[in-house]
Amino acid sequence: MERMAQLDVRSKLAILADAAKYDASCASSGTSKRKSDKGGKGLGSTEGMGICHAYAPDGRCISLLKILLTNSCIFDCHYCINRKSSNVRRARFTPEEVVDLTLSFYRRNYIEGLFLSSGIIASSNYTMEQIVRVAKLLREEHDFRGYIHLKTIPDADPELVHQAGLYADRVSINVELPTVAGLTRLAPEKSAPQIEGAMQDVRTAIDDGTDAKKRYKSAPRYAPAGQSTQMIVGADAATDGDIIGRAAGLYGRFNLRRVYYSAFSPIPDASAVLPLQRPPLMREHRLYQSDWLMRFYDYQPGEVAAAADATTGMLPLDIDPKLAWALKFRDRFPVDVNRAPREALLRVPGLGVKAVDAILATRRWRRLRLADVTRLTASVAKVRPFLIAEDWRPVTLADKAELRPLVAPKREQLELFAA
């Protein structure tokens, strides 16, 4: 603690900004709009273009100061670089230092908000109090109207978590690992029921706040950007099917905005119970794609899980989950682009939500040809075997026993000094 006190703010920032890079759940979608010019006072805004870059649903880039309050921790989670037994350089901000940094970075036009997480010092309640104090100082003393995302602390008092939602745009608590068995093995000091209980409390508060806002304009807003969570991929034996099922359950029970996935990364002086190698980053990418299918393409969790290998439970790495599902269920195809309902078109590989909406709008006035569909997709080769157009029927392709070599993306050798 003495050595931490001797560090200047710049040194602390270098340590604690680097320590925060392992948290993937840094986003700012769904927040309410607030402007500093409204009422002639206030500082910051959740609007406009802007050290973490997040993207809102309308494409705006929002830069966030992403730091830990401290990387010291009383817990000893095997997978965490900041665990109690880890031999890393420690640092700790005071709430006032975080506030000063946030305001200073904002005034220099570096950021538009704050993402704050922390290791656990002294106790869960003490740490949560310090995190809430940062947000309270920003909102009440400095009238900061930018985006704030607070990570809540496991086992913290529900009242403290509730206060976090009154000041933050988004609150989140990490489930850490996809299975209870994995959490028990790799993070024995954390409790899955307690984590889920805190998530349920946040959902209840968000629902109550939304209902109160409909009834009374003066009702305080509560976490308008909702809550999110994160799970580590590849640190335990959970399959992609396990992860997809877990994510679907979290969305359904707690109405989450996002589930984030973070590929396990080997850490210095790692525990012997951890794998020696990190999983392929493509696995993390495929899980995000499967998450997208459930959230925007109306796939049921069982359908997405069906795209995984029946033996290993893993999604293929060389093709995306939507294409893998289509190849497994070829009896659902081809679909007629001029007649099929929206839900059937959304299952055609290569067609996104915008493309499907464009098809539905266009076919009210005329029948679509293959060339029309080609203009809406990046890969006509992927689309052709799965649809029927005015001038196209995939008779030969539909009869092929093995479609995968024709529709899978071709491997290319990258050139280091390509022009």
From TrEMBL:
Highest taxon listed in the record's lineage: Bacteria
Entry keyword set: Iron, Iron-sulfur, Metal-binding, S-adenosyl-L-methionine
Name of the molecule in the record: Putative DNA modification/repair radical SAM protein
Entries under InterPro entries matching the protein: Aldolase_TIM, DNA_rSAM_put, Endo/Exo/Phosphatase_dom_1, rSAM, rSAM_sf, RuvA_2-like
Keyword hit for Electron transport: no
Residue intervals passing through the bilayer: none
The organism of origin for this protein: Sphingomonas xinjiangensis
Domain named Radical SAM core: residues: 68-202
Signal sequence segment: none
Cofactor: [4Fe-4S] cluster
GO molecular function: catalytic activity; iron-sulfur cluster binding; metal ion binding
